[in-house]
Amino acid sequence: MLPQFDYARPDTLQDACRLLAANPDAARPLAGGTDLIFDMRLGKKSPALVVDLKCVPGLDEISFDADGAMRLGALVRTRDIELSDRIRQKFSALTDAIDVLASVQIRNRARLGGNLCHASPSADTPPALIALDATVEIAGPDGTRSLPLEAFFTGPGKTVLTAGEVLAAVTVPPVPAGGGSAYIRNTVRKAMDLAIIGVGAMLVLDRDGRCAKAGIGLGAVAPKPLRAHDAEAFLTGKQLDDATIAEAAKLARSIATPISDVRSQADYRADMVEVYTRRTLALALSRAAA
Amino acid sequence: MAKMTMEMSVNGELCEEEAPANITLLDFLRDKLGFSGVKMGCNMGECGACTVLVDGVSVNSCLMLAAEAQGKEVTSIEGLSKGTTLHPLQKAFAEFGGAQCGYCTPGMIVAAKAVLDENPDPSDEEIRFALAGNICRCTGYVKIVEAVQEAAAELRAKGGDHA
Description:
The complex is a heterodimer.
Chain A: E1 6-8, H1 13-22, E2 27-30, H2 36-41, E3 49-52, E4 62-64, E5 70-73, H3 78-82, H4 85-90, H5 92-99, H6 104-107, H7 112-118, H8 125-131, E6 135-140, E7 143-148, E8 153-155, E9 158-159, E10 166-172, E11 179-186, E12 197-205, E13 211-219, E14 226-227, H9 229-235, H10 242-255, H11 266-289
Parallel strand pairs in A: 1-3, 2-3
Antiparallel strand pairs in A: 4-5, 5-10, 6-7, 6-10, 8-9, 11-12, 12-13, 13-14
Helix pairs in contact in A: 5-8, 9-10, 10-11
Chain B: E1 3-10, E2 13-20, H1 25-32, E3 51-54, E4 57-60, E5 73-75, H2 88-96, H3 105-118, H4 124-130, H5 142-158
Parallel strand pairs in B: 1-5
Antiparallel strand pairs in B: 1-2, 3-4, 3-5
């Protein structure tokens, strides 16, 4: 049996934040449960109060504004992102990441917000969303705040969320025509595995074929997902070819600080982050040019 | 920790049982409601043996609280057969050798039903991708894919799955 807990199912966001704020060390929010129940089973987490967010209205909507910017409520099921043709076409990096996230059964339960708040350094959605220049919206007892996704994570399993705060949504600016994105990862097994490295990339080309905008996110090579700012700055304004992509991949590698663990070695990860940055940039480029 | 009265529809019948908040849907189905066809494999969402449908979509019942399934429709392997008439998937698994020890089989068949509900004419690759969350130690998966294809053909001929 799981550890004992009380179960609350608030039907407003204020009530959810209030319950979490009132029990700072003892309450945990429940989204899809695929991480929380797993952690409780292994004894890593034992909340005395589980606050089920699934009855709070308005947290599970996928919406697009007139400019094509996307807003994903924190409780959007990863499976619904997977099945969205529009997201697959316009924000391919994100569907690439979700395609390889565990299994259909997990994706039918796992919510995007839960995946982000669990803050695994090797999670697949962060590098993809970081490359897409995503912003997070946080709701708390004192109001809401927003910050870039790469600033949301502070370490393995840790985010900037304080007691009573809940991730409310992720917003992604539109990828214009001439833009493409991708996420590729390396795993030991073909399925149901965690990434040993993962790279998300987004490229926007201007009419001369030069890079107008670049986004590069790295996963599993640091205590938290990284944004490769220097590599992005290097690519911006340049014609993209094998040489410029290779140089950007070197710059991405230079910020990675991978460790050796049960899945892979630090030096292999360091080599592979460069290889996979090249491959992901090449794929994003081919989609941008298409 | 209070006991809750959990109410949900399971295989078409309304079920109501008292249970603690910390019981998983898996344990609730097996221990409280007697649906022992739902199997516990890894108990952590990796093997798929515990797969059931909740409101028509496949889930690992070991990672879901019974409390979260309140008011929903749950379908387990027991819900696929009608009396003594096997579902085409069950028949095909038996005929094609898709089951050996049989332990993964209930979860595999329920997961396969979800695949065919969404995609009545899948390729082998699509079947394998969609069943990535179901592990089988015995068969090597070849016969499982063949059985799913056989069932898919029979269901297409029948005009759909009315289970």
